[in-house]
Amino acid sequence: MAVNGGIPASRDVPDPGPARTRRPLTETEKRIIEHQGTEPPFSGEFVSFFEPGIYSCRKCGAPLFRSEDKFDAGCGWPCFDDSLPDAVTSVHAGGGRRTEITCARCGGHLGHIFNGERLTPKNLRYCVNSLSLEFRAAPLPIAADAPR
Question: What's the Enzyme Commission number for this chain (predicted)?
């Protein structure tokens, strides 16, 4: 089922079996991820969050963005100026006003990409809903004098 002429609302994601630990999407997460919704600006947990780690798809767990590529655009949503290779797909939305971004693995809606704003040297802004993301903290470095 497509929403507003967009991509299918969801794609089948293979269930990895009994080891699967993902919790089901909430109704709000479904509205955003499966039906191309948007959370209110400045409401998401990752807007002002800048810890080192990896941001993954909330629906399927695929790694999408590195914290090193996150920046504060002042727009009210988490923003990145790059994605992990082959992790994010761009889909031109109807009317050509915005370009939607989705998870390349499951097709879940992430947000939109903007080009030419000159906010970073890469000149890209992946504007993402916090509810479309999960965060995995980077492992702490082992100190040189730590016992082995």
Answer: 1.8.4.12
Claim: this prediction has a pTM higher than 0.85: no
- pLDDT, one tens digit per residue, over 24-38 is 999 999 999 999 999
End-to-end CA distance of the chain, in Å? 54
Residue from 57, 60, 106, 127 carrying the catalytic annotation? 127
| Structural domains of the chain, count | 1
Query: Do the domain assignments include residue 39?
Result: no
Q: Which domain holds residue 132?
A: 48-137
